[in-house]
Amino acid sequence: MKRRSVLALIMAMLLVFSAFAGCQDSGNSSQESSAAQEQSTAEESKAESEESQATQDSVVDEPRQSVSIMSITFNGNPVGDDNDRVLMLEEYTNYDIEFTWVLDADYNDKINSMMAGGTLPEITLLKSLSSSVIQNCRAGAFWDLTDYLANYNNLSQINETVLQNTAIDGKTYGIPRTRTLMRNGIVYRQDWLEAVGLEPATNLDEFTEILRAFTFDDPDGDGQNDTWGLMSTKASTGFDTICMWFGAPNGWGEKDGQLQPAFLFDEYMDGMNYLKDLYDEGILNEDFPVLENSGTKDGFKAEQTGIYISNCDEANSWYTYFADQGIDATMTVTAQFETPAGKVVAPTDGHAGMLSIFTGAVKDEENLDRCLTFLDRCNDKTAEDLLENGILDVDYTLNADGETITKIDGNPSLGESDGFNQIMMDVLDNGYTVTPSNAVAEQVLAAQQENSDYILANPAKVLLLASDTYNANGSQLDQIMSDARIQYIVGSIDQAGWEAAIANWRTMGGDSVIEEVNAVNSAA
Q1: For the domain 184-346+446-458, what is the CATH code?
Q2: CA separation (Å) from 210 to 139, 198, 207, 296, 489?
Q3: Which of 162, 257, 296, 315 is the most exposed place for a label (fewest CB within 10 A)?
Q4: Whole-angstrom distance, CA of residue 224 vs CA of residue 160
Q5: How far apart are CA 188 and CA 206, in angstroms?
Q6: 426 neighbors 178 (Cβ within 8 angstroms)
Q7: Model's pTM, two decimal places?
Q8: Average pLDDT taken over every residue of the chain
Q9: Is the pLDDT of residue 357 over 60?
């Protein structure tokens, strides 16, 4: 009886989505003026509901399956097996799910001990590509899924960059917990732009003009020389982004027939010289070599700068902060402008670990298919909505457009329980509905979506994990070049000093890293 009531809830959800897909209000003139957009939305919603209905149709005559899975609880109060959301996911996928929940703080140790004892569940969340994870995958502890994903509707559509970023020796050992690959954008203080008579940049020259104006033209109107055009911190990782604008690769790139670090490219030095000019002119904050890593965000919040180039999701928190503090500040968020290298943006890793299948518990391809089918169904829209948003009209309501939602306070179906959404993979990238909370949030989403077309990936991101030298000495090697980058920009060393730092990097193991990275790349 319980399963029938849960199935009824699921079918009700599907019917609501279908109803929104098909409905139109012919008496609303504003809808008539946007008929083409609504038709597109309706078609997308219809396709999503048809996909979910297809899954339900396919499991009607299918025997009930089961699967075991291990994941994280952060507060030690994981969702119960009898929770409605768990039961609805089970009904939708046609799988009985046996959860093993482990506290986040104990998780990695627990995996190691259970693996040693051969007691890991069939599916295990691996939070990151740590050295131990890499070693265990190479040793055959988890299934190599490379040749299997094409057989599944959702799993076959995993973003290629995300697959690359989770690959070990060129092989796929898990389904990534996909996260938005593009977070970056450019946040401007719009009121500052208006104060200096400028608009968001469309090219590098215009951007440089804004930097100067935000430094020297009193954009905050307080009569003081107390603003910076550009702020950075001692981490100085944002400088690599600016070097990309001049044609340097993201992290690593191909040169002379092999992969090499970006700082070995002439274009990287062009970016360094641009930054040095900004520092010499007083546009780049003079204290960046000692400023803590949160300094750039803190500087924007404290109205010391009016430009932020990084994860533009920060604009959402600043919007709330300025409103709460009664600060009369407006913001504009844009995508990347034209640079000498075109429009190029560094992506995130695009994942938060992966769900892997333990060979000690899953012995053959028949059972592998059983596990992968479950994971594939968990990426259908209905399943993702259950995992992330909850139950329609209990945890959220669907808005009139049929594609955005409004959350109900308190997460009613889960209460204080947690962990349920930690198995969400979202390989179709935000297949669930999202509601921008304000105009700035809408701009953030639009900038991130546009910048997704300008991604410049790091081809050695995962290959470095296979380098024994980098695993042993990577922090020291990175520090050599970080220090040299700062020293060059502030004028402590010149071109010869920069080249000496590169020579030191090579001697301390850098050349071995290059050799090992390329060996793995050639073997992949």
Answers
A1: 3.40.190.10
A2: 54, 7, 5, 17, 20
A3: 257
A4: 49
A5: 13
A6: yes
A7: 0.75
A8: 89
A9: yes
